[in-house]
Amino acid sequence: MSKALYIHHTINLALMIVFIILQFFEIGGLTTSIVLLALFLINSIGFIRANSKHVKEKGVTIEDNQKFKQ
User: Fold this and answer.
1) Model pTM greater than 0.90?
2) 12-25 confidence digits (pLDDT tens)
């Protein structure tokens, strides 16, 4: 997996952890939830675009690439 894809995964994981913590302690309210959701969606769209560029360059999907490494 390319470095850009690792970055997108890490950011999405951090956003989800922050969202879960805020929801658990009932901090922030609706505005914070909407902002975190928007950031998560924007990052997910960036991940999809980065993945499509990776597939176009390499000619294989991430799953196929992992199979070849094993």
Assistant:
1) no
2) 899 999 988 988 88
Residue 6 makes CB contacts below 8 A (sequence gap 6+) with none
- Provide the phi-psi class of 2: left if phi over 0, else alpha when psi is between -120 and 50, else beta: beta
Alpha-carbon span 70 to 68, nearest angstrom = 6
DSSP of 11-49, one letter per residue?
HHHHHHHHHHHHHHTT-SHHHHHHHHHHHHHHHHHHHHH
Residue 60 has pLDDT above 60, yes or no: yes
Q: Is the dihedral of CA 60, 4, 15, 66 positive or negative?
A: positive
